[in-house]
Backbone:
């Protein structure tokens, strides 16, 4: 699916992945990409040093995993408008 992503959609997914308050589950709900696919997209799209910094930031971070942080039942609205998951 990643090969067919429009540049605007690719940018939106990357932006969501960068945000600390947007869990991978939100990206999957909004765009259908699982965590592994988001990681692959980030690896392909970012410079190596930027990818390593991003990966270090999100690895083990509870806020990037809705089930771990207790936010697994978030509202599905507002995903494309970049509504902060922390405020839902």
Residues:
């Amino acid at each position: 699916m990643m090969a067919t992503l429009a540049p605007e959609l690719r940018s939106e997914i990357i932006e969501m992945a960068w945000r600390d308050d947007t869990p991978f589950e939100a990206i999957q709900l909004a765009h259908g990409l699982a965590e592994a696919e988001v990681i692959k997209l980030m690896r392909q799209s970012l410079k190596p040093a930027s990818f390593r910094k991003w990966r270090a930031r999100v690895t083990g971070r509870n806020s990037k995993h809705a089930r771990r942080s207790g936010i697994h039942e978030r509202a599905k609205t507002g995903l494309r408008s970049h509504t902060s998951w922390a405020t839902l």
